[in-house]
């Protein structure tokens, strides 16, 4: 499976600021995904990012709050804008590949908003 | 909309024992995929095993196997000869095929598994 890296691995940010999370893949992939995992919770899909098209957001997530870029087939960014303590979560990117386009995950970014 | 339910928030077994984690799901689709993911304290999500709904044979990967009951919409994970490194949060997940729309993983709430020495 693809090797996926994320930067930063963790950060502590002040409310009202923004943080951009990077996701890098060692091979070209069509589909990339961004998930949020709130403390002690399961994962929820934020959006699907395909190269060459606008990201598709899930209900409850909006582009103004979580803008996503997908400039090429190996890279994507997720920005968490105007942060509040409720945004404290682990943010994970994943890529779809394999026989059934199963998803493989990056190591995640632990964000704490104070 | 699809839902996935894991009814066991926590489980604990002794090393070398066999343990079964439960998962049920709800869908009106006839073709789909089911997965078990493992998330150790390092937080890296690791794909453990997958099952295609159109396959009757249960998937196996070394010490990991599933019991897939399509009619009952049940998908349990059995870990044989459990090891300390199996200690992790385990998530059951559902996904539709690519030709049926957005490939969104729908996760259950997770089961925290502890393997004791």
Summarize the SSE layout with pairings.
The complex is a heterodimer of chains A (about 110) and B (about 120).
Chain A: E1 4-7, E2 10-13, E3 19-25, E4 31-37, E5 43-50, E6 56-57, E7 68-72, E8 75-80, E9 89-97, E10 102-105, E11 109-113
Chain B: E1 3-5, E2 10-14, E3 19-21, E4 24-26, E5 33-39, E6 46-52, E7 60-61, E8 64-69, E9 74-79, E10 88-95, E11 106-107, E12 111-116
Structural features, described:
The complex is a heterodimer of chains A (114) and B (117). By secondary structure, chain A is mainly beta. Chain A has strands at residues 4-7, 10-13, 19-25, 31-37, 43-50, 56-57, 68-72, 75-80, 89-97, 102-105, 109-113. In chain A, the strands form 2 sheets. In chain A, strands 2, 4, 5, 6, 9, 10 and 11 form a 7-stranded mixed sheet that branches. Chain A has a 4-stranded antiparallel sheet with strand order 1-3-8-7, with no helix packed on it. In chain A, a hairpin with a 5-residue loop joins strand 5 and strand 6. Chain B has 117 residues and is mostly beta strands. Chain B has strands at 3-5, 10-14, 19-21, 24-26, 33-39, 46-52, 60-61, 64-69, 74-79, 88-95, 106-107, 111-116. In chain B, strands 2, 5, 6, 10, 11 and 12 form a 6-stranded mixed sheet that branches. In chain B, strands 3-9-8-7 form a 4-stranded antiparallel sheet, with no helix packed on it. The chains are: A mainly beta (114), B mainly beta (117). Chains A and B meet through strand 4, strand 5, strand 9 and strand 10 of A and strand 5 and strand 6 of B.
């Amino acid at each position: 499976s693809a090797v996926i890296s994320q930067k930063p691995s963790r950060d502590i940010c002040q409310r009202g600021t923004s943080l951009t999370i990077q996701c890098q893949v060692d091979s070209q992939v069509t589909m990339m995904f961004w998930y949020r995992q709130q403390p002690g919770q399961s994962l929820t899909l934020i959006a699907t990012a395909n190269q060459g098209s606008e990201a598709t957001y899930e209900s409850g997530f909006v582009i103004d709050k979580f803008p996503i870029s997908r400039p090429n087939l190996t890279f994507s960014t997720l920005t968490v804008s105007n942060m509040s303590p409720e945004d404290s979560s682990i943010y994970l990117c994943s890529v779809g590949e394999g026989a059934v386009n199963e998803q493989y995950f990056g190591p995640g970014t632990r964000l704490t908003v104070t | 909309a699809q839902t996935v339910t894991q009814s066991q928030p926590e489980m604990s077994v002794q090393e070398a024992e066999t343990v079964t984690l439960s998962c049920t799901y709800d869908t009106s689709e006839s073709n789909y995929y089911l997965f078990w993911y493992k998330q150790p304290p390092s937080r890296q999500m690791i794909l453990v095993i997958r099952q295609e709904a159109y396959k009757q044979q249960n998937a196996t990967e070394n010490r990991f196997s599933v019991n897939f009951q399509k009619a009952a919409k049940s998908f349990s994970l059995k870990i044989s000869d459990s090891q300390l490194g199996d200690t992790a949060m385990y998530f059951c997940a559902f996904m539709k095929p690519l030709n049926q729309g957005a490939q969104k993983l729908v996760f259950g709430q997770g089961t925290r598994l502890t393997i004791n020495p």
